[in-house]
């Protein structure tokens, strides 16, 4: 059985299309793993930009998390901040994976603030360049390990940037097409059923879902032996984060003693 993080990574990888230019941000091991996996197995001509580094080689993502200089040193090129913004402004980025606090069925996302249990607003790290990027990137795919009304509310508590820019939502349980029209379920992840997903989703949706394909043996081997041997993908999982953080700290300690 594919684990929750693996299911999300494989679903994200399958969002990539021939000729895509995919950008992934800092501190998103799932997005980076999905991009590397897609380029190796599904879309050989995929251009991957990790932060500002163009076409980093296939590598264990633990290496780049322990040594932030690794990707820039090994990449084909490193773009300056102005060059990245210029590329985005010219429509050169066709795909981005984002992990917001909330996303709803209209494709609106929230990285700004959420409602705390006591009714007060809790501020989040913020939008960074997302309001501009969301309008200019070809396709915006939101993802999250887990599947809950907290992540998928009927309506986001705050709209970050332009509304309706997210086109797909991927969780450990399902894949949705979202936008100004009503949300539609595309697929159920293996081991999940429609009633379970509907009960855990805050927005209404239509559709008769397919079953998302399970991770292939080749993809699983590549993910576990070349891309993420230390399972740092679990840093983006509430349940797996403590153990993954301990593994990362141990790797960092080993690196500093060399």
TrEMBL record:
InterPro entries found in the cross-reference section: NagB/RpiA_transferase-like
Coiled coil: none
Similarity section: Belongs to the 3-oxoacid CoA-transferase subunit B family.
UniProt xrefs under PANTHER family: ACETATE COA-TRANSFERASE YDIF, CHOLESTEROL RING-CLEAVING HYDROLASE IPDB SUBUNIT
Protein name: CoA-transferase
